[in-house]
Design a protein that fits this description.
The chain is an alpha/beta fold. It folds into two domains: 189 residues, Nucleotidyltransferase, domain 5 (2-Layer Sandwich); 173 residues, ATPase, nucleotide binding domain (Nucleotidyltransferase, domain 5). The protein is built from 15 helices and 13 strands. Strands 3-2-1-4-7-13 form a six-stranded mixed sheet, with helices on both faces. A five-stranded mixed sheet has the order 10-9-8-11-12, sandwiched between helices. Strand 11, helix 13 and strand 12 form a beta-alpha-beta unit. The model has no long low-confidence stretch (mean pLDDT 95). Bound molecules: adenosine-5'-diphosphate and magnesium ion.
Amino acid sequence: MIVAGVMSGTSADGINVAMVRVQGRGFRSRIELLAHYQFPYPAEARRAVLAAMNANSASVADLARLNFALGKLYAEAVRTAQRRARLECELVGCHGQTLYHQGNPAPFLGRHIACTWQIGEAAIIAAQIGVPVVSDFRPTDMAVGGKGAPLVPFLDYVLYRHRRYGRIVQNLGGIGNLTAIPPRALPEQLVAFDTGPGNMVIDAVTAHLFDKPFDRNGRFAARGQPIERVLHELLRRRFFRQKPPKTAGREQFGREFVREFLRLCHRADENDIVATATALTARSIGLAVRKFVLPLLESEAAKPARFREFVASGGGTKNATLMGMIREELAPLQMRVRTTDDFGLPSEAKEAVAFALLAYQTWRHLPSNVPSATGARRPAILGKVSYA
Ligand SMILES: Nc1ncnc2c1ncn2[C@@H]1O[C@H](COP(=O)(O)OP(=O)(O)O)[C@@H](O)[C@H]1O
Ligand SMILES: [Mg+2]
């Protein structure tokens, strides 16, 4: 079956569409990426998305409009992808744009509520493309006690499990998240969680200091030196010390955090500040690997079975300075840093591919959350279907 996977992440940079051939079922699915395209959000759409993520400044009417407007943008993206690839999909899996994600229950109206909200009206995509659309993947996992994230571990397990050694699969989107796959792991032995910021803080400080949406190829950071005092202070925060499962988003590393970050860096050289934001991502990953991943294999510390490879994906892989810092963090652990490109999957396409795979499972009435990753009580068939 040919499935179009549509992803827009917390960076709010735009829409990724992956055209994927999927066969088989469950963890034995086979996937072949046929084509992949990126469509940056038009500037005013990006502004509207970022404003909508800031609950204090969004009106209900604007949110309702944005839901439909994004549905149209997604439909256009799929249509353009089909035309360019000269392919027609039979199913769409659309993650949607997350406006709010709160993985942990907190008191609200006298109950304990965890919640998540992705927008981009799937009914519009279904009507315009003429095929069924699976959307709203995360609420299903939360309804059975999960944190609703991360969902990509399903794909990580399908693609990157290895019989002889462990792999750590790391996405560097707005947020960083990793999936640790021990050698010969069963799905319930996966450990996956958000490591902290990916590009989110780098993007925000680059925008603030240089009026650029991101630090292209890590050039600003390459000219600076990380400020150790600031890193030390931030890495003591609860999020980085907290045991997985754990999730993060703009709620943790958005505006408020960046304001605090800039305050801690006050008057430092601008390149040093970007270097510090970049090092925060690299160090938080190193910390997560040492603290929460390596101990997984301590008991069966047979040397050949250790975590040998670190496979990175997401827009952050284009940031050479960030990748260099990650290599430095992991070199003492004898871990080889690679990217999904080395395995034939373009690093910017991975999450879109994941939602094509998840939509396919749903269409076949198969579960695709990984309970050990999300904390769900059981596997669940994710999402909702909009019929054409
Ligand atoms: N050439 C590049 N140099 C540095 N960073 C880049 C480059 N291209 C993309 N990025 C980073 O990747 C981010 C987008 O990554 P993506 O994987 O799409 O994240 P998300 O899933 O959060 O949307 C951008 O915001 C930017 O920070
Ligand atoms: Mg993106």
